[in-house]
Design goal:
Layout: E1 17-25, H1 31-45, H2 52-69, E2 85-92, E3 95-102, H3 123-130, E4 133-138, E5 146-153, H4 160-164
Antiparallel strand pairs: 1-2, 2-3, 3-5, 4-5
Helix pairs in contact: 1-2, 2-3
């Protein structure tokens, strides 16, 4: 299901980029709510609000994983120019990518668990289930860390004329 984890984004034509937005998130669990609100506002601006539920679930899981597993125990902030966690939303024609950058070099690890009553441990399973594809890659250069991303294919909605056919 989750192999290979270390993969880059599938080829996307840079000329087809429609919109992009990003926000930095503090190293606090309340940041997950900030990420959801940012995602809602952005999708509404892009007239993609009907995709909010699936995308928001994935954003919540990616941000939670970054805060829970990628933050050094003794660091609360990355500084003004290097926030600890950053959420990026990028829209291409027909596709949307959610990407979360964090300071850890460690790869995401999916837990194998048959305990469906467990309160945690299923985040990457949910990301895999609700997105069309996902992966991660290490950051290059001075930033360090990694980016975990999820891709959504945006299906055109059938209008009244299409449903009458």
């Amino acid at each position: 299901m989750l192999e290979p984890l270390r993969q880059g984004l599938p080829p996307l034509d840079p000329a087809a980029v429609s919109d992009a937005a990003s926000c930095s998130l503090p190293a606090r669990y309340e940041a997950v709510g900030d990420a959801r609100r940012f995602t809602r506002r952005t999708l509404d601006q892009w007239e993609l609000g009907d995709h909010f539920d699936d995308i928001c679930l994935v954003v919540s899981e990616l941000v939670t994983n970054a805060l829970r597993h990628a933050m050094p125990a003794n660091s609360g902030h990355g500084g003004e120019h290097n926030p600890p966690v950053r959420l990026h939303l990028m829209r291409w024609t027909g596709r949307l990518v959610c990407a979360v950058r964090d300071p850890s070099q460690d790869s995401p690890v999916a837990r194998d668990s048959d305990d469906f009553s467990a309160e945690s441990g299923r985040g990457l399973f949910l990301v895999d289930s609700f997105s069309d594809s996902w992966g991660w890659h290490p950051m290059a250069g001075a930033l360090g860390g990694k980016v975990v991303w999820a891709l959504f294919r945006l299906q055109p909605h059938a209008g009244p004329a299409a449903s009458a056919e």
